Amino acid sequence: MAQAILPRIGLGTFRLKEQEVIDSVSSALELGYRHIDTAQMYENEAAVGKAIRESGVPRDDIFLTTKVWYDRLQGDDLIKSLEESLEKLGVDQVDLALIHWPSPKGEVPMAEYIGNLDEARKRGMTKHIGISNFTIAQVDEALSVPGGEHIITNQVEVHPFLGNHALVSHCQARGVQVTGYMPLAVGKVMKEPVLQEIANEHGVTPAQVALAWVAARDIVVIPSSTKPAHQRANLAALDLELSSDEMARIDALDAGERIANPDFAPEWDD
Description:
The protein has an 8-stranded parallel sheet. It is built from 11 helices and 8 strands. By secondary structure, it is an alpha/beta fold. Helix 3 packs across helix 4 (77-89). It has a single domain (2-183, 219-225), classed as TIM Barrel.
């Protein structure tokens, strides 16, 4: 069910601000992207909303995601923070609201903030709810609390150097779609010899190979790009079919290299 809800590829907007994010979102929508991913912590929701309004693409055609930061999880603060996001974005409703990170050290009980996130869904502030950066144990806990049955995705870091295989398999077995962020490992994939070799065989770029590998694992990809040519290439990557041998060669690059690993992160599975 979740697979049909989330478009297979979206535009990530982390680190993009002001005119840069407006230009990025505008060109992506023009090229055919219909999935835009932002967050309160990115401090770009107002600019993302402006780009969407000025794009000429009907709001109903765009799948818009935002995320609640970990310091807004307690009590009615979660609902207030989403109200602020909707106001900045200039929309009545987002398509998906995520808990950006689980409460550090479990300070806020998961039942409390998942319950409040589902309350936001019931109020029509978001069509769907989900989680981000949750471990296997945390996914199970989130699904078990009231409201958790409505969780459709866990957004986590996935790229050839961090396959996150155990977590991905677990989420998929539980019926939770995985969304993979930083699929290009902040550009590192461009210099990887194995990816370059496979790319040369297909007449594509290493970035396209990396995206095709993530997508072939039934993971939604949200690469970030400011250049229209790269955005177009990222879309085209979904049409690239890799052989089982090529998939295995990329699987072997997994070195557990985690890019997003702040001091408040949970204890990872791998």
